[in-house]
Queue: 2 jobs
Job 1
Amino acid sequence: MMLNDTYKTISTLSEAIYTEKRSKFLAFAIPVTTIDEIKDHLEVYQKKYYDSRHVCYAYMLGADRKDFRANDNGEPSGTAGKPILGQINSNELTDILVIVVRYFGGIKLGTSGLIVAYKAAAAEAIANATIIEKTVDEEITVMFEFPFMNDIMRIVKEEEPTIVSQIYDMDCTMTLSIRKSKMEKLRARLEKVDSARLLTTDEL
């Protein structure tokens, strides 16, 4: 059971080559976090493999795995992008782009043959990748008077959030990041410190 504050992705680019009836499928699994990154990668691969028959892909973004797309790039509908996306799903991955480049070998594969080939190529690229688990983190900003620094730092030491930024003055401000499931406890402890005030997003 996946916790609601963790997700799986890949750490670095991985590749695979799959051959079926002289058609060659080059597959690439790429870690991404934004649509702009995806567009940049697609542009690079489309230019690099301009002489190929098709550059098909699928991607999934976000910890909740709700932002995704599959593209057949001229292959019969549902024969390329969908099987690629299927492999992303069966490995429960996100923040990933899988591109499969096809060089036609002169023998038609038929729709079922294409589905099998794109699925196999994507599966191999993912199998060659290092899958890592990441946590869904949230940020909180607390404002407090300087004399209460020790109280705040004790909480930081015990709850172990990451300090994103800090400003020390008469009034101090600290932004902390911690995994989602631990945020409630951190927030409750910070609120108990004298002079401490949690800032809302509008106030930042």
Job 2
Amino acid sequence: MASMSEQPPHTPAEEPAWKRRAVERSTQAAKRRAEERGERFLDAARAVVTEKGTTDFTVQEVVDRSRQSLRSFYQHFDGKHELLLALFEDAMATTAGRLRAAAARESGPLERLRCVVRELFESGRPGAVGARRPLFADFAPALLVSRPREMAVAVAPVVAVVAELTAELERTGALGGSIDALRAARLTVRTVLFAARPESADEGEPLTADEVWDFCAHGLLRG
């Protein structure tokens, strides 16, 4: 007869599958609710920025517009800066999709890159009726200077589009210098976004998309 020490160790019963399903369903529902509340704050912030034509607003204004609580706001964002960063990240993701679609209509890599640079520049300029785009005019230049790491994350979708096009040029032998396609894309995006900021009174005539493309092309292309 086997001694007690020879008995197989006790194995606790495995958790029933219904419990795992219940936990997963509960977690997914909580995640959806959190995403929906976050989107409501973003929608409210967009509306406030559009109405005021500036990023100079208060968190309370956004909370009131969203019809949610201040407590809920701080469960999603640690303050106004993080809210603006979320808005800018969303704008960059949307811009990347628009740039990719615009590039697809062009016939060659050089034409596609020219189109993307011009479109990116115009996206940061005032609207057709002079409406300001505060996220590009106010927030993006400040972010570029003061928080470059956050800027790099935010513009990553746009950089990816430009990097694909500079890689195409690299394969054709048209990309000049020793810089690789990804670093060239990062430099190009930073240059274009900074050039798109509103000019001060002493800067003379506003830059045009053609001028910005010519400048970038001289740095990117061989010869």
